[in-house]
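haha ok so turns out i had the wrong file open the whole time. this is the CORRECT one, sorry everyone. sequence first:
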Amino acid sequence: MTEIVNCLYTEAQYKKLLTFSFENGEFQSKGEFLASAIFNLTTYDGGLDNFFVDKIINICEAINNKTTFEFIKDADNYTWYIAILNMKFFESKLNWGTSIRGAWWEDKIIINSCGLYLEEGDDGYTDDAEDGRWNQLLKITIQGKHVDAFFRAVINFYRE
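then structure:
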C-alpha cells in the first residue's frame, strides 16, 4: 500500500490524478471509474454505475456549495440525498451536527482506492508493476480546504 498522509494537492492536481488514472485504467466511462475508484460502489453494471455517480455528483456539489437545504427542496433530490449520505463511502467523510440535511465535509478525509494511479515523480509512485504503473491500494489523507478542492476536482472531472 502506498500512503500519502497529508495530500495537499490543488484542484488541478487532483483532476490530473483522476484523469491519469481514468486514462490508464480499464473503465468504459468516467461514471464507472468514479463508482469503483472513488465511491467504492460494486454493481458490475456500467449503466448503474453512471446512474448512481450522477446522483452522487449532484449531492457532492450541493455539499461543496453549501446549498443542501435548497437542493433537497425537490422531493426526488431529498430521497436520493438521504439515501446517498447513508452509503458507507460518506460515513467517515461527512459531519452534519444535529441534521443530516445540512451536511458538510469533515476537515480530514481518507480515500482508499485501487483505481488511482500516480504518475512517475508523484509522491508514493513505484514502478514495481509489470505494466509500469502503480497497482496497489492507494490511501490518501486530505485535510482542510483541500477536501473541497478534491470534491470540486471530482465534480469537474465527471462533468467534462
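The CA atoms of residues 38 and 108 lie 16 Å apart.
again sry for the mixup
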